[in-house]
């Protein structure tokens, strides 16, 4: 039984993904979060019991991020990325091994990471996610996530 946090502000996607995961294994606990504020609250509530898996969208509203963090999201296009780098990894040191980006905005993330704006640690994090095939396009079906669950 796994505890899975999903960050996506599209209610239809959250609902379909949760149904897909529960159909695959009804014992999984799925925590859907529509914004960073909810996700941060869930992470803080779990404390010493981090989630087993994280599914993050890139393009999510910035509610819950500081003004400095929100400024790094390119008007929301990289919110999931900023959430991973600046919030999730601080709370769960193993998060990178347990995170998949399921997003339609992967091309924009690639462009950012290739730019001079990206910090070296962000480039390294992206390289790890990419080499482990943890960047999944939303044009894929939800069963493309099954290998990770």
What attributes does this structure have?
43% helix, alpha/beta, 15% strand, Rossmann fold, globular, 5-stranded parallel β-sheet, 5 strands, 149 residues
Average pLDDT over all residues: 92
Shape: globular
Any guess at the CATH architecture? Answer: 3-Layer(aba) Sandwich
- Please count the beta strands (DSSP E, at least 2 residues each): 5
Please characterize this protein's 3D structure.
This protein is α/β, with parallel strands linked by helices and 149 residues long. It has a single domain (3-145), classed as 3-Layer(aba) Sandwich (Rossmann fold), CATH 3.40.50. The chain is built from six helices and five strands. It has a five-stranded parallel β-sheet, sandwiched between helices. Helix 1 (11-24) links the parallel strand 1 and strand 2 (29-33). The termini are close together. The model has no long low-confidence stretch (mean pLDDT 92).
Quick gist of this model?
The chain is built from six helices and five strands. It has helices at 11-24, 36-46, 67-71, 79-91, 106-114, 120-131, and strands at 3-7, 29-33, 53-56, 99-103, 135-137.
